[in-house]
Amino acid sequence: MMSHISEYSSLRRAAYVLDEQKLIANLKLIRRVRDEAGISIILALKGFAMWRMFPLVAKYLDGATASSLYEARLIHEEMGCNAHTYCAAYLDDEFDELSAISEHMVFNSVGQYLHFRDKLQASYPHISPGLRVNPGFSKVEVDMYNPTAPGSRLGIDADRLADGLPGGIEGLHFHALCENDSYDLEETLAAFEQRFGHLIPKVKWINMGGGHLMTRKGYDTDHLIRLLKAFKEKNNVDIILEPGSAIAWQTGDLVAHIVDIVDNHNIKTLMTDVSFTAHMPDTLEMPYRPMIEGTIQEDTPYRYRIGGTSCLSGDFMYEYNFEKEPAIGDQLVFKDMIHYTIVKTTMFNGVRHPDIYLLKQNGELVCQRRFTYEDYKNRMN
Ligand SMILES: Cc1ncc(COP(=O)(O)O)c(C=O)c1O
């Protein structure tokens, strides 16, 4: 495993470090898929919203998708374009502001579309409206991340659209994947076509959501390209993909430090300056076990739990085996901690939020943001 010890040695406080070169490599790969398949690919802000990188992202992708007014504003202000917007439920008192900075608006129910349709047609004719549908099929096994799970509130069921689409709808959207491959998309597309095939000739565009992890090693991008091209040719529609994870996949780390070592009931725990619940919430929510540099699968004499810095009892990871004996002051590098981390962090317990750094292509480490007490205080009142 490549070590970042020298690159990160100047960091004294916990920090997320985004590696610019790795981000560019992902963007180039995604751009190739876009060009060869003849589709649009936009960034899902929910997974990655480091807006200082938006001008770079905009060089390779076709814009971004928002799931709220604030995400749409960030796209508008920092990427310089209107958002492709989908909100699970649009709010009356935000709708005008949101419409003014969106280009597509996707509705989660026929009722919400009808509620806003007259306003859209009268005041925001530049917007192309769509409906989110539920393909009723997903390869995602964890219900927390499966929008098609029984009883899901996300997306319209096929039987509700048996009589066709309400007037004015120009697109369909489905999102049913999470860290999946193109073969999972192929199966999902078959389910989508089976349930909603009668509506496809009526629309101009189809948004196939996110979860396409095309930057993961081993992903068959050529198969993805063939699949999308064939779908596009057969149905004569524009295709949009809106991945989040794929853009920031393996583009950086969370660098932490060992602050103390406690030994209770024969369990040794490395106490750190980061928190799983506050800074890596998916490790507890998904849940998954993050990779830590310098640890291996096999047993070693250096077996330690990793303790988060909050007082939540479950804010820890079970034992890791270290190759070398860890010591107070050492750095702990949690791998692949850029997507779905910074966007989800909290200041629970008032724990210090990690800094955000950029590792530039020339090797320079630049601090982009340091969080302060005021950030914590201002959220509370
Ligand atoms: C509607 C929608 N689009 C896109 C995405 C991005 O998915 P991913 O980051 O897995 O590519 C999500 C993730 O939850 C989503 O809910």
Overview of this protein structure:
The chain is α/β, with parallel strands linked by helices and 381 residues long. 28% of the residues lie in helices and 22% in strands. The protein is built from twelve helices and 18 strands. The chain has helices at 5-8, 20-37, 54-60, 69-78, 95-100, 110-123, 182-196, 221-235, 245-248, 276-279, 282-285, 373-378; strands spanning 15-19, 40-41, 43-44, 64-66, 83-86, 102-107, 128-132, 171-173, 205-207, 238-241, 252-264, 267-272, 295-296, 302-307, 316-322, 331-334, 355-359, 365-369. Strands 1, 11, 12, 13, 14, 15, 16, 17 and 18 form a nine-stranded mixed β-sheet that branches. A nine-stranded parallel β-sheet has the order 2-10-9-8-7-6-5-4-3. Helix 5 (95-100) links the parallel strand 5 (83-86) and strand 6 (102-107). Helix 2 (20-37) packs parallel to helix 8 (221-235) and helix 7 runs parallel beside helix 8 (221-235). The protein is globular. The N and C termini lie far apart (45 Å). Pyridoxal-5'-phosphate binds at residues 44, 46-47, 86, 175, 178, 209-211, 242-246. Residues 44, 46-47, 86, 175, 178, 209-211, 242-246 line the site of pyridoxal-5'-phosphate (PLP).
- How many beta-strand elements? 18
Low-confidence stretches: none
Radius of gyration: 22 Å
Structural class, from helix and strand content? alpha/beta
Task: Using the alpha-carbon principal axes, give the shape.
Answer: globular
Cofactors, ions and other ligands in the entry: pyridoxal-5'-phosphate
- Count of helix runs: 12
**How much is the average pLDDT?**
97
- β content, as a range? 15-25%
